[in-house]
Every structure is written in structure tokens, then in C-alpha cells.
Amino acid sequence: MQQIAIIGGTGMTGQCAADYALEKGLTVRLLYRTEATVPERFKSKVQLVQGDVTNYEDVKRLIEGVDGVSVILGTRNKLETTTELSQGTENLIKAMKEAKLSKFSIVMSSFLLRPLNEVPAVFHRLNEEHQRMLDLTKASGLDYIAILPPHIADEAASGYTVIHDEAPGRLVSKYDLGKFIIESLDQPEHYGKVCGIAKAAPKTA
CA 16, 17, 23, 26 torsion: positive or negative? Predict the structure, then answer.
């Protein structure tokens, strides 16, 4: 992989993913809505594509010439009913198929790994939208990596654990998550898998 596109690269975790990709020497194309959301440090380092994930043509432009895509769509702490995330996912899958691209990592939430009665009621509508995203992702036929993190902490990287189809813990550093979002695109063992991720347990002596 030499060039990747990031959708949601201006949010907290998205910035960590973009920073990590740049550190790896990758060329990064980043979709943004308004210039005010783009960190100053990205302006000279990434290829900025203005647009909206809910607009198919914008998504199509974003992924031109890339080898893989990372999706870190958030709701900026809004918890009301939305279909923006699933609509964006649908647009991406369609655009990737048209461009004959296969690899994408996509972030949702570890609440999808728990019974609904364990999910706080305030998150139910967002959880439903994440479920729609996951259903679309699984049905895509592409080499997806569905990443379901727990609480994303604003703390230093400390290593992480990934387990398929279950949540290995209750917390992950935004830097570790950003790293896995990018690294997983080149890790075939995670293709077509639902990946739980969490902070690695401290090694015992």
C-alpha cells in the first residue's frame, strides 16, 4: 500500500490514523467538509478533498488512485437518529466496487458485541446505525476490517490486543486505535473479520 483515503480523518481518532499513515510514508487523501475542521499540520502533508460522505460523487473523487480506505465516521457526540454513517458506508462500498478496490477498514463500536440490554439506552439509536454499517460491510464482498473499539481514551499508546468477534477490554488509546486502523489494511488475517480491540494487558513478571 502506498496511497490511502481516510473518511473521518479530522476527528480525534481519524487524526491519529492520518498521523500514523504519514509516519509510515503513505500518501494520504482526506475527505473534509469545511476547512475549519482540518488541522493545520495536515494542510501541507495530505491531499485534501472537500466533500461529504453522503454524496456519492465526492466519495468517488476521494478514492481515485488509492490502494485502501479507512473509515472513522463519528457523530461529534450527537446521539439522535441518523443514517449519515450507513449512507456513507453504502456510498463507499459502491464506489470501491466501481474502482475495483477491495481493502477498507471501518470503525464502529464494541456495543455491537454486547446484547442490547447491556447497551445504555442513550446509545441505542447510534447502535442501530452502527449495526446498519456493519450489515452493509459484511455484505460488501470486499476485504473489510470491521473494527469495534470500546471507550477511546485520550492517552498515550501502550500496545493493543485484537480478538475476532469479541471485545478484549473496555478501553483503547486513540493512538493505538489509529495505528490498527492503518496497519490492518495490510494484515490479511483480519480481512472479512469483526475485530474487537483494547489496550493490551500489562505483562506479568
Answer: negative
